[in-house]
């Protein structure tokens, strides 16, 4: 039986790894995209990858995953953000996936600045600044 004095330090050590920072520390292969662009992504089965887009929270930017891709080809792990939230400061939004079986799928990210929960642009300016980044993902068999 484990003594209580040994359990407390062990528990503190385990919990310390969960404090602060991004939920995912391994973004894998990072592929950059942008509003209005389509990027070809070629991966191998079993590979972790992230789709990265620039984001400026002070301007109302917030990228979202429009729909999950074909789960047999790429499974979604998480959405992470790194960088500042200060006025005028930018950050990067990362959408982390795991490449699974060989095949092709499309992943669409959408940025809708200053949109409400319904994701409809409030005015002409918001409509003009909204857009998608498209990633055409092809997964090949692992070597």
CATH class division? Mainly Beta
Determine the N-to-C terminus distance. 46 Å
Number of helices: 2
What's the assembly state of these chains?
Answer: single chain
Count of distinct strands? 8
How many domains, in number, for the residues?
Answer: 1
Describe the strand arrangement of the main beta sheet, using strand numbers.
1-3-6-5
Q: Which structural class is indicated by helix and strand composition?
A: mainly beta
* Secondary-structure element string: HEEEEEEEHE
Relative strand content: 35-45%
The percent of residues in helical segments reads: 10-25%
| Radius of gyration computed on alpha carbons | 19 Å
Main beta sheet, described? Answer: 4 strands, mixed
What would the average pLDDT be, to the nearest integer?
82
Low-pLDDT stretches:
1-21
CATH architectural label: Sandwich
CATH topology: Immunoglobulin-like
Shape: globular
Please describe what this structure looks like:
With 143 residues, the chain is mostly beta strands. The protein has one domain: Immunoglobulin-like (Sandwich). Helix content is 13%, strand content 42%. It has two helices and eight strands. Strands 1-3-6-5 form a four-stranded mixed beta sheet, with no helix packed on it. Strand 5 (74-83) and strand 6 (91-99) form a beta hairpin. The radius of gyration is 19 Å and the shape is globular. The chain starts with a helix and ends with a strand. Residues 1-21 have low confidence and may be disordered.
């Amino acid at each position: 039986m484990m003594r209580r004095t040994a359990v407390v330090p062990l528990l503190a050590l385990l919990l310390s790894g969960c404090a602060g920072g991004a939920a995912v520390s391994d973004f894998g292969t990072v592929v950059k995209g942008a509003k209005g662009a389509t990027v070809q992504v070629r991966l191998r089965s079993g590979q972790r990858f992230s789709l990265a887009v620039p984001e400026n929270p002070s301007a109302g930017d917030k990228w979202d995953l429009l729909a999950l891709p074909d789960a047999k080809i790429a499974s979604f792990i998480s959405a992470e953000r790194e960088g500042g939230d200060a006025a005028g400061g930018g950050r990067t939004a990362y959408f982390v996936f795991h490449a699974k079986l060989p095949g092709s799928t499309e992943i669409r990210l959408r940025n809708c600045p200053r949109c409400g929960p319904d994701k409809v642009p409030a005015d002409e300016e918001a409509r003009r600044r909204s857009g998608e980044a498209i990633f055409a993902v092809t997964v090949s068999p692992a070597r």
